[in-house]
Specification:
The chain has 13 helices and 3 strands; from the N terminus they run αααααααααααββαβα. The chain has 342 residues and is mostly helical. The protein has 2 domains: 8-204, Up-down Bundle (Glycerol uptake facilitator protein), CATH 1.20.1080; 240-341, 2-Layer Sandwich (Alpha-Beta Plaits), CATH 3.30.70. Strand 2 (269-275), helix 12 (281-289) and strand 3 (300-306) form a beta-alpha-beta unit. This is Integral membrane protein. The chain crosses the membrane at residues 21-39, 45-68, 80-98, 118-136, 143-165, 171-194, 215-236. It holds the Pfam family DUF389.
């Protein structure tokens, strides 16, 4: 029965072959980054996934991890150069696209790439382990394409391009951090995976060198992971608060038609827009007192009441609807201005 895995020599030759800078790969990369940018701009998940499937960004990252693991610094150098070239090309294409794109607001898919957490670290590491296992197989598998989707290398690069085009520093920092997480932990997972596979060292090193590299990798991991833990903690707290707010509104405003609910984090204010029979002030105060029962002590409740439309004349109903729409548009405009100023 034929061996389905590459041996050490075959795998090294395959890695070196894949790390050549080719015109065809550059064109594919530019197409992938353009598709991913359009997908982020249009908030289209299927388009983003399609871009990640054809992206060649994964190859040099695996090359860096492999080279470090077997002390083959020729491969490390080639892989690092290729990665830098591909990232540069990607940033140029993404920045140019978002500069000329008529859609300048940040979509949900763009915003999602600006707040990395510990879960992104876990995904990148697990993806790196799966990626190096898939790369060592001779037969074609769906592992590497699946890893490319799971680790999502393209979207953060596109988001960096968006932040450069719109001069949004906070998005630039968040997306850059996410890309660093993905690259670092795919590399670390590859390093560990190759060691477990017991590939022979290309250059023999003393135990002192082994310890030095291990310490360097552990230190780098901690340096990258710690901020993501804080970010995850904040995300969990926000998720709990959001769930509490939804439960509060559902329970306390069950007798009214809730048109809208919004929470202002800076002012710690929950605004609930309702329609129906007028709610007395003492009822509003009573409901406000129940906030602490939902873990929302310190939150200020603001009830925005709109009369029952069924009891209004057509002209009056249109008046309230227009006022409500104008108010929401103003809120969205102010929110957009605040995000751009950040």
């Amino acid at each position: 029965m034929a061996n389905t895995n590459y041996n050490a020599l075959e795998f090294r030759e395959k890695i070196i072959s894949d790390l050549k800078i080719k015109t065809s790969d550059s064109v594919i990369l530019m197409c992938a980054i353009l598709i991913a940018s359009i997908g982020l701009n249009m908030n289209s998940i299927p388009v983003i996934i399609g871009a990640m499937l054809i992206s060649p960004l994964m190859t040099p990252i695996l090359g860096v991890g492999y080279g470090l693991s077997v002390f083959d610094f020729y491969i490390v150098k080639k892989a690092a150069i290729l990665l830098l070239v591909e990232v540069f090309v990607s940033l140029v294409v993404a920045t140019l696209y978002f500069t000329i794109s008529p859609i300048t607001y940040a979509s949900d898919e763009i915003i999602a790439r600006t707040s990395p957490t510990i879960w992104d670290v876990i995904i990148a590491f697990a993806g790196g382990v799966a990626g190096i296992i898939g790369a060592t197989k001779k037969t074609s598998t769906n592992i590497v394409p699946g890893v490319a989707i799971a680790t999502a290398l393209m979207p953060p690069v596109c988001t960096i391009g968006y932040s450069i085009a719109t001069l949004n520093f906070s998005y630039f920092v968040g997306a850059s951090y996410l890309f660093i997480i993905n690259c670092a932990f795919i590399t670390i997972a590859t390093f560990i995976g190759i060691r477990f596979m017991r590939f022979p060292l290309y250059t023999e090193k003393s135990s002192k060198h082994h310890r030095r590299i291990n310490i360097w990798i552990i230190s780098l991991s901690l340096l990258i992971v710690i901020p993501s833990i804080f970010s995850a903690s904040i995300l969990v707290q926000e998720s709990i608060k959001k769930s509490s707010i939804n439960q509060f509104v559902t329970d306390e405003f069950s007798d009214y038609v809730v048109l809208d609910q919004s929470y202002n984090e800076e002012k710690d204010t929950l605004t609930v827009t309702i329609s129906g029979s007028p709610m007395p002030k003492n009822k509003v105060q009573e409901i406000s007192g129940d906030l602490s029962d939902y873990g929302l002590s310190g939150v200020t409740l603001d009830v925005d009441q709109i009369p029952d439309f069924t009891e209004l004349k057509g002209s009056d109903a249109n008046k309230y609807i227009n006022e409500y729409i104008k108010k929401k548009l103003d809120e969205e405009k102010n929110k957009s201005v605040e995000e751009q100023s950040e």
